[in-house]
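Interim report, section 4.2 (structural modelling).
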Amino acid sequence: MSRPPKRKLRAAPGSGRVLAAWRPAMLLALAPGAARAQVAVRGEIVYTMAGAPIKNGVVLVGKAGTIERVGPAGSVSIPKGYRVLAAKVVTPGLIDAHTVVGLAGALNAPFDQDQLDKSNPIQPDLRAVDAYNSRELLVGWLRHYGITTIHTGHGPGALISGQTMIVKTREVLTPRDVLDSTAMIALTVGPEVEKTFAPKSPGSRTKGIAMLREEFVKAQEYVKKRAAATAEKPVARDLNLDILADVLTGKIPVLATAQSARDIETTLRLAREFGFRLVLDGAAESYLLLDQLKAANVPIIIHPTMVRNAALMQNASVETIAKLRAAGLRVALQSGYEAYVPKTRVVLFEAAMAAGWGLPPEQALASITIDAARILGVEQRVGSLEPGKDGDLALFDGDPLEYLTHVCAVVMDGEVVEAGCH
Amino acid sequence: MHRHSNGCAAARCGAALLLAFHPGLLPAQDTAVAVRGGTILPMTGPEIKNGVLVVERGKIVAVGPAGQVKIPAGAKIVEAGGRVLMPGLIDTHSHIADAEWNDKASPIQGDVRILDALNPFADGVKRARAGGITTVNIMPGSGHLMSGQTAYLKLRDATRIEDMLICSDPITQICGGMKMANGTNSRGDPPFPGSRAKSAALVREKFIKAMEYREGLRQADSTKRPARDLELEGIAQVLDGKRVVHFHTHRADDIMTVLRLQREFGFRVVLHHTSEAWKVAKEIAQAGVPVSLIVIDSPGGKQEAIDWHPENGAALVKAGVLVGFHTDDWITDSRFFIRAAAMSVRAGMPRQKALEGLTIAGARILELEKRIGSLEPGKDADFIVLSGDPLSVYTRVEQTWIDGKKLFDLHDPVQRNYATGGYGYSRDDRVEIDEDAADAEVAR
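Predicted structure of the assembly:
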């Protein structure tokens, strides 16, 4: 099966009208590396996510593709030669704090599903960069809704399924577009691991945790050996333990998917025992454990607001993110992992539904911009509109969270990568 | 956790709540109810500001602007100032109430009735009400060329499924349609078809058998009539136009195959899902068949859905097709059904057509437009009260009324959980579409 041709402006046979069809590459005529235009983006409201929204704001993006100035139109004049874009509402490029898109493709056929290898329940050496497909249809789909940065990689379903990466949603990547090639390791606590590996081990929650602890103990030994190694007596290299050693020494955080309250508590217990940096993922029943999570001060990448209430997620609530935020926890939203139709969710819509159910709209926006950037450790580059940061912006014709509002342009590093309202 | 039979977590159910939750314990709603002060969207007429809706004995008796509608003496008054009223939503394709997938004995199972699987106590029913849904077409799955007879239900409080059916007697009446499918879901190892062409051939063979069966029943000599065959009986109802076919189909060529079969055998059909409808909107319009659309947030999940487009609704309406929506719950969630219309308007569908797609168009698709789908005197008192404009993400379904009874109230602390989710409010026996099943399906 070959990939479908890219959609372009085309007449829909039958309707006789031009479908303003999704056209991911319409404005990508600029070859990568071509000189970037300087851009001035004007917004009736500019949500910088660094301070209060600016009325009649201007964002200047310079030749380097980074933001030069941000401020009210009265105080920021647009230099000659800058291409001017205007919109009702301007936000930073959006961030999907956890997805598998790019490793998981739209066709859902074995050849485009690389998010989970089932040969071994613990494989921290699997690198996301070795599988990520920047030309994947779903990557373009997220981009055309304003999502410019994604944290993607190996999915839930194994004890440790592999690594994750943080990458821009460009169709053609340059090294600068990979913000972090080894962002986290994806660890899963809960019965979906048994489902993946049945009839082999682990066959229970307890067995899975025992296997993880054995592996972390091995990694502790490896850290000691590595420290004691000399040029004459080098330690035999083990790709899995190399990564786990980096986890134990705090270089790489653990992204632990746990949905039920008991699995979340088990995850906290593991983190206490081995001292790794923990980012909690999914966390459907986290609303039952607000005190414990606050005490552990753990950031949470919460499940999509509209996630199906089935199986492990049966007790999920659309109000969880609002409750976590109100409790003072650090939270970001994710599109998560979808096994069937639709093959991905869109964090913009998940944030919107959270706002519909009580999360203050600016916090909803933060959960897919600056809060996501901070949890992912990439806030120096993305997540807010501030001088020096990447010139990534999403332009809307109204409240970004409203159903009827359109994303009308997406800018990355000062380049218009998507245009046309949808 | 032990749960009261009406679905309330026993530990949390106070007596007052129990009553609120259990209209069956109260005397039948004989007194009139007047909902006043809100904006009414009747669907078949213009919007009414400061409107009054009067319902009595399960039916709408009056609807109009304040001052022009007489509120009967003794009517219970529901104040709806600042709220929006519209007809109860009609989901033309759902799998709630513990609907089951058939076994793999054969690819055509026209005798199987989904109603024999349904659980009136399922949380899915309450969650659908929380989404404003009052009528559903519950169907068996798409893993068969013909997976069986569907059930048109009102989401009443009931202890037996018969009391939810839109008809009064499932033994003597036809209470639903017939589910069929083409494309990839219904393929498999023998006896399932291994290709699209084989799929169509198997269906044609079966329809021809049903035609012969129907002919046989018309024999004057009763000894020459065929023995009763439940499957062929169901298909004969399809051929007679008494049972509408609900046809799962995605790709444009598969849609055209449905239309080809429909021309050959003359059955009445509704096209469901139709990922690629935008490519053949004119052809669908020419065939004069309605479409029940799914609205999802991304294409893909299988090859036949990769060209799914949010402009389907806009393209079909422009071509003149009758368009309704469905949740396909649990592909999308009943609680967010209104969103299907909103996202279609975002993609160019006219607002009124999108709202009709949730209501009167769905009624027409199920051929129930004389009873439901709009707020008009004489129709069933199925309506919802919204906190604001139906197409805003900030709007909530506050109340859902069916046959003049309020069966969902967002301000009831227990019922609210069916809208939000939470611990113990979604415990249905769902057929899970897991990754392995999806892989197997694609590999077929």
